[in-house]
C-alpha cells in the first residue's frame, strides 16, 4: 500500500471518546478545519449546510444529556454542529438560481441547470423529510473531510449521531423549516491512546467487476 500524509491522517483519526479538557485548539487550526468543510463538494454545488461552532461550556453541558450523555460533548475543545439546509435548496426559495448564477456560464446553460435541478429533485423537494435526507447526506461528506482534515493537524474528533434530533433543535432554537441537525462533531485532543483499528479485510469489501 502507498502511504502519504493523507493515509497517515486516516490512520491517526479515530472515534475519540474523551478529550483533554485542558487542551484547546487554537483559532487558526479550528478555522482551517472549518475551511476544509466549506471546500467540500456538494450535489449541484448547493453547499446545503451550515456549521455552528460552539465553545460555550454551559451550552455544551445542556447539549450533553440530549446526546446520550456522551462525554465528548463537554470534554471537547470545539463542538461543531452540522446543519442540513432545507428551504434554501428548494427552487421556490430563489436561492438555487443564485447559486448557479455564481458560475461563469452563459445564461442558457444556467437555465438548463436550473431546469434539470428542479426536475431531477422534484420528488426530493416534495417534503422536508426527503429534503433533509438529501442534504444531510452531503453534510456527511463535509464531516468526513473535516475529521480527516483535523487529523492532518493532529486534532482528534468523533462523529456523533447519537443525539435526540428534535430536542437538540429545540435547544438551539432552530427554525427547522430552514435548517435541521445532521451530525455533531466534537474536536479536541485525546486523553487515551487510540485503540487498534478494526476493519473488514480489503477483499471482503472490494469487488472488482471485470
Ligand atoms: C455517522 C457516524 C455516527 C457516529 N456516532 C457516534 C456516536 O454517537 N458516538 C460515538 O462514540 N461514536 C460514534 N461514531 C463513531 C463510530 O462508532 C466509529 O467511527 C467506528 O466504530 C469506527 O471506529 P474508528 O472511527 O475509531 O476507526 C459514529 C461514526 C459515524 C461515521
Sequence-ordered SSE layout with sheet pairings:
Elements lengths: L4 H8 L14 H12 L10 E6 L2 H7 L8 H4 L2 E8 L9 H7 L5 H14 L7 H25 L3 E2 L7 H7 L7 E10 L13 H4 L5
Antiparallel strand pairs: 1-2, 2-4, 3-4
The protein binds flavin mononucleotide.
Q: What report would you give on this structure?
A:
- The chain is of the alpha+beta class and about 210 residues long.
- The chain has a domain at about 15-90 and about 125-190: NADH Oxidase.
- It has helices at about 5-10, 25-40, 55-65, 70-75, 95-100, 105-120, 130-150, 165-170, 200-205, and strands spanning about 50-55, 80-85, 155, 180-190.
- A four-stranded antiparallel β-sheet has the order 1-2-4-3, with helices on both faces.
- About 30% of the residues are buried.
- Flavin mononucleotide binds near residues 15, 161 and 162.
Amino acid at each position: 500500500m502507498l502511504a502519504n500524509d493523507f493515509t497517515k491522517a486516516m490512520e491517526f483519526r479515530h472515534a475519540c471518546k474523551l478529550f483533554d479538557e485542558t487542551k484547546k485548539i487554537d483559532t487558526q487550526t479550528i478555522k482551517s478545519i472549518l475551511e476544509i468543510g466549506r471546500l467540500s463538494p456538494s450535489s449541484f454545488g448547493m453547499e446545503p449546510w451550515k456549521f455552528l461552532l460552539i465553545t460555550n461550556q454551559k451550552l455544551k453541558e445542556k447539549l450533553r444529556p440530549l446526546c446520550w450523555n456522551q462525554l465528548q460533548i463537554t470534554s471537547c475543545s470545539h463542538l461543531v454542529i452540522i446543519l442540513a439546509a432545507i428551504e434554501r435548496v428548494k427552487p421556490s426559495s430563489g436561492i438555487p438560481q443564485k447559486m448557479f448564477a455564481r458560475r461563469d456560464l452563459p445564461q442558457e446553460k444556467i437555465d438548463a441547470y436550473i431546469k434539470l435541478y428542479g426536475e431531477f429533485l422534484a420528488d426530493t423537494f416534495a417534503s422536508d423529510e426527503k429534503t433533509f435526507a438529501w442534504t444531510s447526506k452531503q453534510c456527511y461528506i463535509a464531516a468526513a473531510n473535516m475529521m480527516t482534515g483535523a487529523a492532518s493537524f493532529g486534532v482528534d474528533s468523533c462523529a456523533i449521531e447519537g443525539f435526540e434530533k428534535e430536542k437538540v433543535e429545540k435547544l438551539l432554537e432552530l427554525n427547522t423549516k430552514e435548517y435541521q441537525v445532521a451530525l455533531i462533531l466534537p474536536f479536541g485532543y485525546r486523553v487515551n491512546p487510540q485503540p487498534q483499528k478494526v476493519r473488514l479485510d480489503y477483499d471482503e469489501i472490494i469487488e472488482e467487476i471485470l
